[in-house]
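Researcher: Please predict.
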Amino acid sequence: MFHPISAGFVAAISGFASSFALVIAGLAAVGASPGEASSGLFAVCLAVAITNIVAAVWLRIPLAFAWSTPGAAVLLATANDGIRFSDAVGAFLVCAALLLLCGLWPALGRAITSIPKPLASAMLAGVLLPICLAPIEAVATLPLLAAPIVIVWLVLYRLAPRWAVPAAMVVAVISIVIAAGTDWVSASVAPQLTFVAPTFDLFTILSVGLPLFVVTMAGQNVPGFVVMSTNGYAAPPRFALVASGIGSGAANLFGGHAINLGAITAAIMAGPESHPDRDKRWVATLTNGILYVPLGLAAGLAGALVAAAPSILITAVAGLAVMGALISSVVNALDDPRHRLAAILTFLVVASGIVVVGIGSAFWGLLVGAAVMAWLGWSRRETV
C-alpha cells in the first residue's frame, strides 16, 4: 500500500505549497485581516480534509477535493475594489449555495456547464492575466529576490513539473527571510478559526460570488469529473457537488472561499502511478485528507510569511502557480474560430479590471461576451 500513500502525500504537499500564498493573498484582497486570512486557509484545509476522508471511506474511489485555486485568483483580481470582508463571506456563501443546488437540482448543474466554453475560459484567462504578469514585474522591481524564484521554477518546469511551484515557494521563503529577517516567525501563532458574520451585498455577490461559482464549476469541477472518468471511475455528481457545497459553506463562516473537485492533484491520486490496482487507489485520497489536517495547522505560520513578504513577491509566486491554468484557458477560449471575437472581448473586459456601478469586471466580461456571441450567432456553440 506504499504507492497510494506516497501519491496522497505528494498530492497534499504539492497542492498546498503551490497555492497557499494565492489563497491568503486572495482573501486579503477582499478585505480579510491577516488573522481572518489565516483562519480562512485553515478552514478550507479542514474542509478538504474532511471531504476527502469521507469520500474515500464512503465511496472507496479516489474522488478528491481541493480548494478552488482559480477561485482564489478571482479574489486576488478584485484587489483595491474596497470590498468588506463580511460582504465577501456573504458572496462565498451564495457560491456555496449554488454548488449545493447543482448537486440537489441536476438541471441547474447542466445549465451552468452549458455556459459556452470560450466565454468561461476567456473569463478565467482575464482573471489570471494580471496575476501572471506579476513575476515579470517582480523581476523588474526586485531582481535579486525575484529572479532566483523564476529561474528555479523554469528549470524544474522542464525537469520535474510537479515540484516547480513548491520549489519556487521555498526559494521565495528564503528571499523573504533575506528581505524581512525572521521576526515574522515569532509573530506567528497557532492557527485558530475565526467566525466571520456574513453580510450580503448585491454588487459583491455579482463581482465575487458569481465569478467564483463559475470558475469553480468550469475550471475545477468539470475537469475533476473528466479526470475521474479518464481513469475509469464513475464519480457520483450529486455526492461531489453536495459535499463541495456543504464543505464550502462550513469553511465560508470562518473566512474560507470554496472547495471543489481536484483536477491536477486528483490525477496524481486516481492515475495508474498511484497503484496498479484501481480498487486500492482510494487510499491515496484518504492519505491526502489526513495530511491536510497538519497542513492546516501551519496556516498561522503561512499567514505570517505572506504578511511579511513584499506583496509583489507573493503575487509573483501566485502567478507562477496559475501559469498552466492561464495557458489552458487561452487555448480553450480561442479553440473555436467562430467564437474568437466574443472570447477576446470577454478576456479584454475582464483583464481591464473595470468596476461599473460597483460591479467588477468578471461579471461585465461574461455579459459582454454573451451579448456578442448572441449577436454573431451561437446556435452551434461548444459548452464547458
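Model: The first strand starts at residue 65 and ends at 67.
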